[in-house]
Amino acid sequence: MSDPELQETDRVQYTFNMALAAVAGQVGCLTLVIIIVTLFGGLWLDSQLGTRPLFTVLLLVGSIPVVIVLMFWVVRKATSKIKPSVKETNNKIQEDAESG
């Protein structure tokens, strides 16, 4: 493989990996949305039922496991699509050949 082809492959792989990193970065926004929804939902329930901090605290504490599972799922899905660059793969093959 010639050098320009290798550079093009690395550039395409880098672009793809950066796109997936951006998707994984959306986890923070998703977490923020969940926290805001549970906060306002808890405040609304507390105002309707007259139990000022009860539902707000319960929903916020209850959203923690949901956020953790959702973050794990999104990051796992995004990182499963990331492939090592051709250069890293070639280096790994050379290292295996030299050690074996």
Explain what you see:
This protein is mainly α. Helix content is 87%, strand content 0%. It has three helices and no strands. The longest helix is centred in the N-terminal third of the chain and has 47 residues, at 3-49. The radius of gyration is 23 Å and the shape is elongated.
Total strand segments: 0
Q: What is the helix/strand order?
A: HHH
- Regions with pLDDT < 50 over 5+ consecutive residues? none
Number of helices: 3
Radius of gyration equals: 23 Å
Strand composition percent: under 5%
**What integer is the average pLDDT?**
83
So what's the overall shape? elongated
Largest sheet: none
Specify the helix fraction band.
Answer: over 70%
Topology summary:
Layout: H1 3-49, H2 54-79, H3 86-99
Helix pairs in contact: 1-2
Explain briefly what this protein structure is.
By secondary structure, the chain is mainly α.
Keywords:
100 residues; single chain; mainly alpha; 3 helices
